[in-house]
Amino acid sequence: MIALEYQELEMLIVRVREISGFDFSGYARPSLLRRASRYLTKHAMNLSELIVHLEQGGKAVYDFIQELTVNYSEMFRDPDFFISLRSEVFSYLESFPAIRIWVAGCASGEEAFSLAILLKETGLYNRSLIYATDLSERVLSSAREGVFSLGHMRTFSENYLLAEGKHSLSDYYHVAYSQAVMVPDLRKNIVFSLHDLTGDGVFNEFQMVSCRNVMIYFNLEQRQKVFKLLYESLAMFGFLCLGKRETLRYSGYEEHFRIIDTRLNIYQKIK
Amino acid sequence: MGGSSGSFVLFEEIIKLVNKPLPCALIFVLHRGKSSLSELPVLFKSKTKVRMEEPQHLDLLDTNCIYFAVPDYHLLIGPDRRFYLDATEKDFFSRPSIDATFISAAQSGIRIKAAMLFSGASEDGAAGIKQIAEKGFSTYVQNPDFAEVPRMPLAAINEYDKHQILNEENFFDEIRSILYSYST
Prior knowledge:
With about 270 residues, chain A is α/β, with parallel strands linked by helices. Chain A has helices at about 5-20, 30-40, 45-55, 60-70, 80-95, 110-120, 135-145, 150-160, 185, 220-235, and strands at about 100-105, 130-135, 145-150, 175, 180, 190-195, 205-210, 235-240, 255-260, 265-270.
């Protein structure tokens, strides 16, 4: 186990910015330290070896950034959330002629596909558009392919059933070369595109934003900036969905939302 | 304090020992299933008068408070004395992992009164409690001979043999005197 110290981490952040332009300075240090230490341990490197490695630029530094920012997700993560979404949020969205949803920090698309399935089963999918964004082109291209390992699919299927899915998750994918490929029909209203929550701005107005387990990546100041971005991206009475243990506390926007589900952190913009 | 299988009852007994204001923060990391809904502060409510919390992301760490790591997130401690939730991969199939909390505490620069590791079926915690010991803080491991599941304390001792051992005879007395000591 290789343990980095905080001063070393700060130096690493500066070097990565110089080499690649990518700026980790808004990221929560304790998590970043854990990730960087794990990267060193996994690749059997010490800090100076890592820096020499990153100085090659290109793929080396890109892979490092990718590994430190990737968001591990699941389809139908926190099944209760999807039950609440159907009863509390989708019932409200039903009255809209067109529904725009933003999945901010979508990783390989698990959340976007889950929402697509839920929208389909509530008859809303044909008038919905899901914008799924991430800062990594690599995870986006994997998301666009809609390919998942069968091992993961087992967990996702269990989640889907717990989320009171109406069919079987296997109705939404076919198996090819021992992998699960999501059916094209499900992908047709999902737009996967590049967007960095720490640098890019508002690009549309949404009735719902799902940004689950992304805020915990950021430090206090950066987190407030991201909350501002999400707030400004929401239509009035639009819904904000955070992770199971993420609240509006310390966001600066506590007064602008009402709580729809206190346990699952679903909020509605009210001013 | 970290524990897994066989540690829940110990946690409960330790909380009963906390019958007056604590001069430190007491943080428990117990391996729990991700869908575990029972909130430990509610469960232990009748056992102590000291405040109990499941910390949220960025909450400030307070003395005279008992904290419990929530299921499905690692609980990290930052140099700014705030808690950080982390959803990265599991250690030893566990999230929260004891190592994640222990290592972050060791790196935080915050003074650690003591770290303790109890019964459990994995090797989680061994690396973290070693780092705390190497920073010069007191570390205690339950004697594996009386741990309900000895693997976790045993792994910690195998990793580093200078931890102090908590024996069955005076286990709770010793923990109580450590919690309420004011020495550095």
